Amino acid sequence: MSLVRNSCQFVSENSKHVKINKEELQKQVNEWFINNKHKYKEFDEYECHLAADEEQVVDFLFILDSLNFCFWPQKDYEYENLSSAIKECFQKSPQQFKAESILKMSFEEFQQLLFPNHPDFPLITERYRLLKHASEVLVTFFEGEFVNVIKAAKNSAAKLLNILTTQFLGFQDHAIYQGRQTFFYKRSQILIGDIYAALKGQGLGKFDDIEILTMFPDYRVPQILNQLNVLQYDEELENKIKNQVEITHGSEYEIEIRANSVIAVELIKEEFQKLGQKLNSIEVDWILWQMGEEQRFDIVPHHRTLSIYY
Ligand SMILES: Nc1nc2c(c(CN[C@H]3C=C[C@H](O)[C@@H]3O)cn2[C@@H]2O[C@H](COP(=O)(O)O)[C@@H](O)[C@H]2O)c(=O)[nH]1
């Protein structure tokens, strides 16, 4: 069983501010199934994603998912903008983002390449530090090649998750809830999920145990689950989110929102299974995230936590 599922199950069973409405969840899944809404856009249907040979694609994803967090403070720059900016860099000169080159990259170059119109993008210096750190680890332990990290995992998502969350400090997305370690590992799981999706489970994207991954607890999937009344918040939390009050990283509120999202997706997966529709947790995640992206402008606000993890 995964560290993420087990620890989030404990939080879900002991939550004070967040509840999963199981009846609503079942209703929603039946509706989606009947209306054939359990489909999702494939990775290569996104204009913002790089299409290239598998080594370049995984290098692209390593850079993307090392920086794939906390877009909400900046209204006019989102996931798609970051992905497109990195894609353009790879199309112009893939060498630019090799670990050796990143170690020589100045902050100004980094900002010019990825955030040319947003010199004060949220946590931009943290993003630069994280990329430098990740490159140092690649050079020190993996001959400067992310492909060697994937190969070390020998087609196991569990092994790759373990390498990413033990060797790369930026991926150590966990918290303490009522004294217990609670794991989310959002960016490391989404990195593995993206490698799998981009390469359609072949070659470097082949994982024999991809089903061990959970959904990726960010701020978008809880938002759509709350919009669907599957995730219910107590009044105090509801008001904080409605009034766009920041929720502190590591607070009970934040951990309960993220952990109940993980468990809600497991329950949704089980409901689909009962209807004969087998889906992995990451596929349910993509369905929900994309639903959120489509409904974006008339949706309840999401929780706002300043974090490098999601
Ligand atoms: N749970 C989950 N979170 C996801 C994704 C993706 C992109 N994945 C798509 C691309 C290829 C795959 O096929 C997926 O369809 C980005 N995010 C997160 O959202 C937030 C950004 O949102 P906004 O502020 O609106 O740009 C930020 O935390 C980012 O990390 C996902 O899939 N699941």
UniProtKB/TrEMBL annotation:
It is an enzyme of class 3 (hydrolase). GO terms for biological process: tRNA modification. Its EC number is 3.2.2.-. GO terms for molecular function: hydrolase activity. It catalyses: queuosine 5'-phosphate + H2O = queuine + D-ribose 5-phosphate. Pfam families: Q_salvage. Keywords: Hydrolase. InterPro entries: Q_salvage. Catalyzes the hydrolysis of queuosine 5'-phosphate, releasing the nucleobase queuine (q). Is required for salvage of queuine from exogenous queuosine (Q) that is imported and then converted to queuosine 5'-phosphate intracellularly. Belongs to the QNG1 protein family. PANTHER family: QUEUOSINE 5'-PHOSPHATE N-GLYCOSYLASE_HYDROLASE, QUEUOSINE 5'-PHOSPHATE N-GLYCOSYLASE_HYDROLASE-RELATED. This is Queuosine 5'-phosphate N-glycosylase/hydrolase. It comes from Paramecium tetraurelia.
